[in-house]
């Protein structure tokens, strides 16, 4: 170990070195004055071990993902998307089918109110369509048919309602004598 001298008081403690208290001239042996005059006290002398700090390797300071980790993460995301997209599309279809069912029900009430006021279905108001369905009305004096034809996400679906309250569905899942909101539903 190499002795290190720090200027100022208290420096040794700040650098966490072992501080050695010097001998003061009056603490030395009484003897020759020559010895006393030639001795210079070493104030604030500390002995510190020299610590060698290891240099970081090239890999130690670099963070990130390896190519294999990135590919594994992408594969997991791909599987989740493959499972989630069909489920999400089915959820959207079910919501659109329920929305048009509500719209046709509201349209039926308006057409029946028109019949009570005018004693004819001819000229009855036709309900507005929705984002995924266009509604058409076919009416005469004694009957009417409300038909909602799907487009876009709901292409191939047709919901109908007549004056007797009969509801029919035609679509990719098949035909039924009721309104089906999801795949696998029955009347």
Your description of this structure?
The protein is of the alpha+beta class and 187 residues long. The chain has 2 domains: 2-48, no CATH class; 67-176. Helix content is 33%, strand content 20%. It contains 3 helices and 8 strands. It has helices at 11-14, 33-38, 67-118; strands at residues 2-5, 18-20, 45-48, 133-139, 144-150, 158-162, 167-171, 174-176. A 5-stranded antiparallel sheet has the order 4-5-6-7-8, covered by helices on one side. Strands 1-3-2 form a 3-stranded antiparallel sheet, with no helix packed on it. The radius of gyration is 46 Å and the shape is elongated. The termini are far apart. The model is unreliable at 9-15 (pLDDT under 50).
């Amino acid at each position: 170990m190499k002795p290190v001298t720090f200027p100022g008081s208290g420096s040794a403690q700040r650098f966490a070195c072992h501080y050695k208290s010097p001998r003061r001239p009056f603490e030395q042996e009484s003897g020759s004055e020559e010895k006393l005059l030639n001795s210079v006290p070493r104030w604030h002398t500390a002995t510190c071990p020299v610590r060698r700090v290891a240099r970081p390797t090239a890999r130690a300071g670099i963070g990130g993902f390896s190519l294999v980790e990135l590919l594994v993460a992408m594969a997991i995301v791909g599987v989740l998307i493959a499972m989630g997209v069909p489920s999400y599309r089915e959820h959207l279809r079910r919501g659109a089918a329920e929305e048009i069912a509500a719209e046709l029900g509201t349209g039926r009430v308006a057409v029946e109110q028109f019949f009570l006021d005018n004693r004819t279905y001819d000229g009855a108001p036709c309900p507005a369509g929705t984002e995924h369905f266009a509604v058409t009305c076919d009416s005469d004096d004694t009957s009417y048919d409300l038909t909602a034809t799907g487009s876009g996400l709901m292409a191939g679906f047709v919901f109908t309602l007549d004056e007797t309250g009969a509801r029919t569905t035609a679509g990719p899942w098949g035909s039924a004598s009721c309104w089906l909101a999801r795949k696998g539903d029955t009347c």
